[in-house]
Amino acid sequence: MDDCKKSFVSHLVHRGVLAYILLSLIMSCSKAPQASKEIIIRLPALGSMRALGTSYGKGDFMSDPYQIGQPIEISSVEIHFWDISKRVEVQQAITFRANSPEIAQLKAPSGYKLTVPSRCEAISVVCNPERLSNNILDYQGRTIAEMPLLSDKVSIQKRPNGLAVELYPKPPVARLEIVSGVSAGSYAAAGGVIKNIRITGLYINNYIKNRSTGERSYLSHTDYFPSNGGFWFGHEQKMHNLESTLHNQLLQYDRQTGRNSYADFYYVFPRTEESPSSIDHLIIRLDYDKNGQRYTNRFITIQSYLVKGASGSERLARFEAGHNYNIKLSDIFSQFTTDNDPTSDKPEVPFINVVGLVETPGENPPIIDDSTIWD
Predict the structure, then answer these.
(1) How far apart are CA 5 and CA 230, in angstroms?
(2) Which of 13, 49, 102, 269 could share a disulfide with 96, CB 3.0–4.6 Å?
(3) Where in the chain is the domain with CATH 2.60.40?
(4) How many helices (H) and strands (E) does the chain have?
(5) What kind of fold does domain 36-172 have according to CATH?
């Protein structure tokens, strides 16, 4: 072999050795163990959550463990691991199935221990993720026991026995319960006395249709056509009730409990913004007599709400996920005065609306004293 060929072969061998060394370094770096830490995760309310029964007429948590009803069945729990500062997940989510020892440990006072990357700053969970949907129409008509449960991203904190996080998952929706129909009495209103009121329909408008995109469904008064039998063009069937039995159902009352025994209910996604125009609207369709004439397909539009609390009433900024809100129609009709007739021949007519009154939502779930949890 001449010198030229020897030099060329030597060059190839040299480059091959360098490539091998470089590849070895890359492989060794990729196999280097990531820094990690051990944490404890607890879901203390998971074992005691109940689906509400027919306890209408009282604002409360949809998953209040002290309410009547059957336990919410947990088919699976999905745990997510977050780097909050970068808004990314630091590892793939893990899922535990029903009746697994891991779910039992999550419910237990001692919690479930696992190792996570050291850059994991927060944890969130989704219970029953197979029931989760971004479309609000998919939730209508469900019982609360059929809901998925989601927690916020909660930061890992130092506890007496190490790093830990405690999570309280809740349904991703708020529940609006329309209760308490109007009595057979009369109401003074501008232009005359209104009586023989009959409620013929309820609509939810201005609601978030898609939780992921924030797409909002809003129909204006220009979409309503009185000449077409009172048809509001484009309004989703699952977001209204036009049944002929609605009026009598809303009047049902349980004398033993002192509560309404029927509610027409809808689920809505909570909003992130708090502008007055962003909250969900309730629209009542009704017939009534006024000055000897029968009026049909009249509307009352509710675009804002007051929360009745111990210290009075405050304006409601938004409906919160995991809460029931009870809207009493009898409170709406009590706002009729000789200077005010809030009814219109179309829904969502500008500047013709009344304020809805809702019951105070339940308090946050109690946090058990640390000394009883983390010993």
Answers:
(1) 94
(2) 102
(3) 36-172, 175-359
(4) 5, 26
(5) Immunoglobulin-like (2.60.40)
